[in-house]
Amino acid sequence: GATPEAAATYVRRLQERLQAEPGVAMTSVTTTPPLGDLRVMAALELNGRPLDVHIHQVDAQYLRAMSIPLLRGRQLTPADTRGVIVSDRLARLRWPGGDALGQIFSIGDDPLEVIGVTADARAVAPGDASAVDVYRLASLADFPFISLIVRTTGPADAHLPAIAAAAAGIDPAIRPRVSWLKERHQVQTADLRRSALAMSVLG
């Protein structure tokens, strides 16, 4: 498999090529592609009850690419290695009656500062009304397992030849698997299901 450094270089070159394509509005990366089978979970105990938290390792563009509304606080930046954004339901459960912003949220032994609160998107568990989400920056070690999100200004299938050409132009041996974001996505945007796709780049 690819080293983290090689994977990161490939993904960034592919993003640069795709973002130069007419009709591509934005690209982003994530370890948990929307509506996919891969889930990264952390167990949290609240008031004596277990709560499964969906962990998304993403880049700074992910929430915008997925049209997930930011309700409070700010977006991630490339400098936010110790920052985290939580979904609204998690914020209300974890800090009832208080403000989540500035609070410390620990993933295992890793304490992170809450810098933002999003709407409840449930991108990997659309049928689970109890799902809660956490977004943090992907690290270099995550890149061999990364998926690329491509948001377009029109129907995504029209961009398939350009995506294939961009990938082949970097390394003909790598053929990304492409899947469309389905109609059941919970993000409340009418055009998302026809104007975005997810690519499993190296896995």
In short:
The protein is of the alpha+beta class and 203 residues long. The chain has 4 helices and 11 strands. Helices cover 19% and strands 33% of the residues.
What features would you describe in this structure?
The protein is α+β, with helices and mostly antiparallel strands. The protein contains four helices and eleven strands. It has helices spanning 4-19, 62-65, 88-94, 160-170, and strands spanning 24-30, 41-46, 49-58, 70-73, 83-87, 104-107, 110-118, 132-137, 147-152, 177-180, 196-200. Strands 2, 3, 4, 5, 6, 7 and 8 form a seven-stranded mixed β-sheet that branches. Helix 1 packs across helix 4 (160-170). The longest helix has 16 residues, at 4-19. The model is unreliable at 182-195 (pLDDT under 50).
